[in-house]
Design a protein that fits this description.
The protein is an alpha/beta fold. Helices cover 22% and strands 28% of the residues.
């Protein structure tokens, strides 16, 4: 009989993402209703209510802080997505769930080639589509036959996830996993959207002949539907058998199923299991740590706030209080607009996803974006307080195409040429209230500027001006609204000056400027 260490995770509809984001395995069983009178101390998430004044909303927003895992995620700046699966062989973007697993035949699979290409492209984390909406699984799961184990590829012993995780770590790249909430195959088997009620489930549920029988396994008691339990068991496999995972990526897609069918996802239980088994992993983008920017073009808003109004829906899912594609998610006006429906102000930074090709999966007739297109996307994502998630799909051989590999390297080289050495690295720095001044010692020509807030103290800057002392007069060269973790600004024209400064013109509370960097591009 297996010796287990059972943890009871009280994931309920009242669970808050505050506990999910800031604690380990345990979840709080309840939370107080949002109240305008609630005292606010610095926190990842702060309650608000319809009675909060405009001034109180701004005060609370100024107190919202990122967690350590969010800070680590933001520092990555550029991450990779790898859409790979049975769709690669059918030519579909969204599979049907009844595909013959025998179609999956990546005869030249080389995940070390993927890792080398991503490393040379400057990526620090890569996310694999372990399961897409079709339900086909890229490792030999115990819970469905719709997986690589049912293909003759590698003699039925293939494991793409194992190879991927080992290769990424071998080349210094962090590992992320995407496990789609939607599952067309499980719908065909009567599990997904079958109308089952939530009930307590022990995770993992051992199957006949399970190789884990008799082992000392941590087990969990969590509420879930039939399909929710299926997901929990697969998440358990992924998070306990493949080494450390640094990002777990969920979307909110529902299956292509009749309109009277729906699977209400067990978000609170899924989050709880991730927090227990991978406490350092960020949960994106249907998750409490990272939000979807609202488009699949890789483009952040001109002013992208990391502090945004949110509400909870379904079973604890963090959701937008304003429309996901609203042009403004966090300004003073946005806070007021959301006040009637939002429950919290939360640190919920934006991830900008886009594919290097028109499709997310590989298609023979498609080609990668140009260096110019990718560079523009970088400036409008990483340069706007967001993280870029760039999809690079392997082909039917199981390799990244030569054109894509070359484009990744060219993209990294182009950004390095756009922002070469920091001309202000050795400058004499003086600080004043909301001002950072640099003396370079001699006049220098500059055409790119990078500003950063110390977001450990929150996101405070609402307006700024970068100025250069020209002929003894401080002259504005570029200005804008938000800064956040990173704001990268091409100047309208090169400016030559010895002294430079960034001056905060509006902020929620005292700003903390972390950096003012100056560059002369080589492009």
């Amino acid at each position: 009989m297996a010796v287990s260490r059972r943890l009871f995770l009280t994931a309920t509809t009242a669970t808050t993402a505050t506990a999910l984001a800031t604690s380990g395995a345990a979840l709080t069983p309840a939370h107080a209703a949002p109240s305008a009178q609630a005292p606010a101390e610095p926190a990842y998430r702060i309650p608000i209510g319809p009675g909060d004044s405009a001034e109180e909303l701004v005060r609370k927003a100024s107190l919202v802080r990122p967690t350590e895992r969010q800070l680590a995620w933001q520092a990555l700046e550029k991450t990779a997505f790898l859409h790979f699966g049975v769709n690669t062989f059918t030519g579909l973007e969204w599979g049907t769930g009844d595909e013959d697993p025998e179609l999956f035949q990546p005869g030249a699979l080389d995940t070390d080639q993927w890792a080398r290409a991503l490393r040379d492209g400057g990526f620090k984390l890569a996310i694999l589509t372990v399961k897409h909406h079709d339900g086909f699984v890229l490792y030999p799961t115990r819970y469905t036959d719709h997986s690589v184990a049912s293909s003759s590829w590698a003699g039925g012993r293939g494991d793409v996830l194992r190879s991927f995780a080992d290769s990424m770590r071998r080349h210094g790249i962090k590992v992320g996993v995407y496990v789609s909430p939607a599952d067309e195959n499980q719908y065909l088997h009567g599990v997904y959207a079958n109308g089952s009620p939530r009930a307590p489930h022990t995770v993992p549920a051992l199957v006949d002949g399970d190789d884990r029988t008799g082992k000392d396994l941590p087990t969990f008691e969590l509420p879930a539907t039939d399909y929710g339990a299926h997901m929990l068991n697969q998440l358990y496999e992924v998070l306990t058998e493949y080494g450390p995972v640094d990002e777990v990526w969920f979307d909110g897609a529902q299956g292509h199923i009749p309109p009277d069918k729906v699977e209400k996802y067990d978000w609170d239980s899924w989050y709880a299991l991730v927090r227990a088994l991978a406490p350092d992993a960020t949960i994106a983008v249907s998750g409490p740590d990272v939000r979807w920017v609202g488009n699949e073009g890789g483009l952040a808003r001109e002013d992208e706030w990391s502090v945004v109004p949110v509400k909870e829906k379904d079973y604890g899912r963090t959701d937008y209080a304003l429309p996901y594609d609203a042009p403004d998610q966090g300004s003073r006006d946005a806070l007021l607009e959301a006040r009637e429906v939002a429950q919290y102000l939360q640190w919920w930074p934006a991830e900008c996803d886009v594919s290097i090709r028109p499709g997310w999966f590989w298609h023979e007739d498609q080609q990668p974006k140009s260096v110019e297109q990718l560079t523009d996307i970088w400036f409008r994502s990483v340069g706007r307080n967001s993280v870029l998630l760039l999809n690079v799909p392997p082909d039917r051989r199981g390799l990244l195409p030569d054109a894509d590999v070359a484009r990744l390297r060219e993209f990294r080289e182009r950004i390095e040429a756009e922002l070469p050495e920091d001309l202000a690295a050795d400058a004499r720095v003086t600080e004043g209230p909301g001002v950072r001044t640099l003396d370079l010692g001699a006049p220098v020509e500059v055409d790119r500027v990078r500003i950063a807030e110390d977001v450990r103290h929150g996101q405070q800057i609402e307006g700024y001006a970068v100025e250069a002392e020209v002929d003894g007069v401080w002259t504005a060269v570029v200005s804008g609204g938000t800064v956040g973790a990173s704001r990268v600004l091409p100047l309208p024209a090169p400016v030559t000056a010895r002294r430079w400064r960034v001056r905060v013109t509006a902020s929620r509370t005292r700003p903390h400027i972390a950096a003012l960097r100056l560059y002369r591009s080589r492009t």
